[in-house]
Specification:
Elements (H helix, E strand, L loop, with lengths): L1 E3 L2 H13 L8 E3 L43 H20 L10 E2 L2 H12 L47
Parallel strand pairs: 1-2, 1-3
Helix pairs in contact: 2-3
């Protein structure tokens, strides 16, 4: 079980661990799979944050405020997700036996980046999704399955016969 080191994810990870039989011995906490860092806007109401219209993701309105810190960029989140996959998931994939279950407990925005980092490991012809999942809404590809809810989950099966795409 891998989890963000933030409290609500840790509580969920512990509940999942306790529900398993036998329970896994440990939970691996990682700051790499924390939710997006909202910088100056962390802990503030949603309406206090900058509008999405700024294509760079950077905020100019509050830049001169004391203690200002920019919102974490999509590129930095993508890099964190890739680093997490490389450090924690790829080593497990090389140890695949008959069946290996992994749980990643994280937060909505970063989960999309984690999914795309996993998806990028495989040739597109080797990836399929269940019939009850809508992929590529609004003409986007499978890397955009939609938003992640607070109680959402994804079941992902990777065959030991799968070849990593590099």
């Amino acid at each position: 079980i891998f989890t963000s080191d933030l409290q609500r994810a840790l509580k969920t990870a512990e509940a999942i661990r306790e529900a398993q039989s036998p329970a896994p011995l440990e939970i691996t906490k990682s700051a790499l799979i924390r939710e997006q860092d909202f910088g100056f806007y962390e802990g503030k109401h949603f309406f206090e944050r900058p509008r999405e219209g700024n294509k760079t993701g950077k905020d100019e309105a509050h830049r001169d405020n004391t203690g200002f810190k920019d919102v974490e960029s999509k590129e930095l989140m993508r890099d964190r997700a890739k680093l997490f996959i490389n450090q924690h998931i790829l080593p497990l994939m090389h140890e695949l036996e008959d069946h290996y279950a992994v749980a990643i407990i994280s937060h909505g925005i970063i989960l999309g980046h984690i999914w795309r980092a996993i998806l990028a490991l495989f040739h597109p012809s080797k990836v399929s999704i269940s019939n009850d999942v809508q992929a590529g809404h609004d003409g986007l590809g499978m890397e955009y399955l939609g938003g992640w809810s607070n109680t959402g989950y994804m079941e992902l099966e990777i065959s030991s016969k799968a070849k990593l795409f590099k």
